[in-house]
Amino acid sequence: MVLVVDDDELIRDMVAVVMGRSGQETTPAGTLQEALGALRRQGFDLVIADLCLPDGSGLQVLAEVQKNHPRTYVIFVTGYPELDSVREALRQGAFDYLIKPIMPTELIHVVGRALEHKHFQEEREMLGNRLEAVFRGVDDAIIAMDERFSIIQVNAAAERLLGPGVPVVGQLLGERAGWLFNSVKSLLQQVQEQPEGKRAFCMVALNDNGRERILSCSASPFHDPKPNATGTILVVRDESQLTRLEPGLRSRQGWHGLVGASRPMREVYELIELLAEVDSTALITGETGTGKELVVRALHEASPRRERPFVAVNCAALPPGLLESELFGHAKGAFTNAVRDKAGRFKLADGGTIFLDEIGDLSMEMQVRLLRVLQEQSFEALGDNRPIRVDVRVVAATHRNLLERVREGLFREDLYYRLKVVEVRIPPLRERKADLPLLIDHFLARFNARLKRSVKGVSEEVLEVFMEHHWPGNVRELEHVLEHAVVVARQPILVWSNLPPELRARTASPLEARPPASGQRGRPLKGGLAVGEWPDRESILQALEESRWQVGVAADRLGVSRSTLWRRMKTLGVRREETTGRE
Fold first, then answer.
1. CB-CB contact of 143 with 158 (8 Å)
2. Is the whole-model pTM more than 0.70?
3. Given phi > 0 = left and psi -120 to 50 = alpha, else beta, which region is 127?
4. Are strands 200-208 and 211-224 parallel, antiparallel or unpaired?
5. Run of H or E including 476
6. pLDDT confidence of residue 206
7. Domain residue ranges in the chain
8. In CATH terms, are 2-130 and 263-427 the same topology?
């Protein structure tokens, strides 16, 4: 829509005809007041106005447009092209001007440029608004800085991170948040020094009001072509929740013996939270040693039944006759040596949770009785025909494949589906090796307190053995390995020789794999490395060149693990630039 303001009706009509051919509707106005009235009633894409009007100046139209219609463009028309008036119109924000008599081709050209420019500006503004919305809505703190690390722009998360005070824009990061700048200074300098403009990462740990915070920081360069300026974008993500894993589950690094912050364990925690709110029967599955009972105890403690009893029964540890008495109780005289009434575990767990461990080893007769209890929430003690009603949540666990046992006729299908309302699979340790450092710290703290030791940690060689071990015994095996190592250790850091003999027999000996003495050259790759020999700088560079710097491939050629090669490269200071110009 175009507003045409001119006291000459012929000009108004001519502009209307030309605009109509271009598909533009026009609204005529012969005076300043008519133009102002039209602007107050509706908005226009474009205003074509005479600079000289009978009751005022076209500059007054421009002022009204800029005040209430900032997205409307103004083109002036004048029959007296005085340089000063034209300059003033353009200075105040007019897009362009035309000189009377107006040529249709020139009018179409100028209007086309104006509308095209308006469309471009609107698209740019829309894109800018979208980017700003994303920028403001991101949970990570984003800080844009110039070459001097002076803050150019921040989002809402960064404002919260940097704390209250005067506006942060224009301040040096080191002055506004010295604690952050000192932690990421080397990271920012690394980005500035990299001509390729690669991203760099680091972790920052700090105490905030006595509470540890873990921040993941990444930095990358940027270039603003308009002022031809360069700078750095710093992104800070608070990873504290991954180490504390709140809320609701208190500290998930050590919650009722459950230790771990890996994705598989976080999924377990989330499922426990959901299960804790209901009384549905749950089946906990997982290999031996994964900590199934700890999961059940955690489920009980997170539920409304936490103040009521938790009763655990190992179904594989008792023969069927004795197990029936243990679960359901017996009356006096029910069998030989039954000299008094005895309450069963179901009765003792009334109002709370009963944990049936190794449910897969239950006999068929006991499976029938258990199914009836689950269906009716009542049972009879041995030697007594009076029904006993209980309010008990049943949680079962097994390391066996129950569905396979159903197919083999060793487990009732109806009981299987009754138990498996919700299944919680506990991942084996080999699927969550990222939790090894947390588990190591957890067990060392326990053994230090119990055995009166002061072991502070494990060596890199031991951690490498742990990371490469398959852990068939899972967390229980790790616990026994660490207890053995703490008992025999004579130093504050556990080393390879402290590990149990059976584990050392199944793994390489990192401590025997000493690097060659200085000046000693390694043997050629084609001859391979001797047992216990670490690759030297020349061998590493040769392997990396031949594998095109694929570290995993190079590690295979050298006969070492990927992590060992990375650490060896770091120790020797091996960098990709060294291969430049090599024969």
1. yes
2. no
3. alpha
4. antiparallel
5. helix 474-488
6. 59
7. 2-130, 139-243, 263-427, 432-511, 517-579
8. yes
Q: What is the pLDDT of residues 347-405, one digit of tens each?
A: 999 999 999 999 999 999 899 989 989 988 888 888 888 889 999 999 999 999 999 99
In the structure encoding, which two tokens stand for residue 364, read together? 């068929």
Helix residue spans in 411-473 (DSSP H) = 413-419, 436-451, 460-468
Q: How far apart are CA 336 and CA 328, in angstroms?
A: 17
Mean pLDDT lowest for which of 61-75, 513-527, 550-564? 513-527
pLDDT for residue 282 is more than 90 = yes
Q: Higher-confidence residue: 357 or 517? A: 357
Domain range 432-511, CATH class: mainly alpha
The architecture of the domain spanning 263-427 is: 3-Layer(aba) Sandwich (3.40)
Q: How many CA atoms lie within 13 A of 338 on its CB side?
A: 19
DSSP letters spanning 184-207: HHHHHHHHHH-TT---EEEEEEEE
Q: In 318-363, which residue ranges form alpha helices assigned H by DSSP?
A: 320-328, 345-348
DSSP E strand boundaries for 289-370: 310-314, 329-330, 342-343, 353-357
CATH 3.10.20 fits 517-579, yes or no: no
**CATH for the stretch 2-130:** 3.40.50.2300
Instruction: Name the band, by pLDDT with cuts 50, 70 and 90, for residue 412.
Output: very high
Residue % of the chain over a pLDDT of 70: 81
* Nearest-angstrom CA–CA distance, 208 and 222: 31
Closest residue by Cα to residue 346 from 380, 318, 301: 380
**Element holding 570 (H helix, E strand):** helix 562-572
- How confident is the model over 28-74, as pLDDT tens digits? 998 999 999 999 898 898 999 888 888 888 888 888 888 888 888 99
User: Please, are residues 181 and 164 in contact by the beta-carbon 8 Å criterion?
Assistant: no
Which residues are CB-contacts of 35 (< 8 A; sequence separation ≥ 6)? 3, 5, 29, 47, 49, 53, 61, 64
| Joined tokens for residue 121 | 């500006």
Residue 234 belongs to what H/E stretch?
strand 229-238
Q: What is the chain's length?
A: 583
- CATH value of 139-243 in 1.20.1440.60, 3.40.1190.20, 3.30.413.10, 3.30.450.20: 3.30.450.20
Burial status of residue 580 (CB atoms within 10 A of its CB: 0-12, 13-18, 19 or more) = exposed
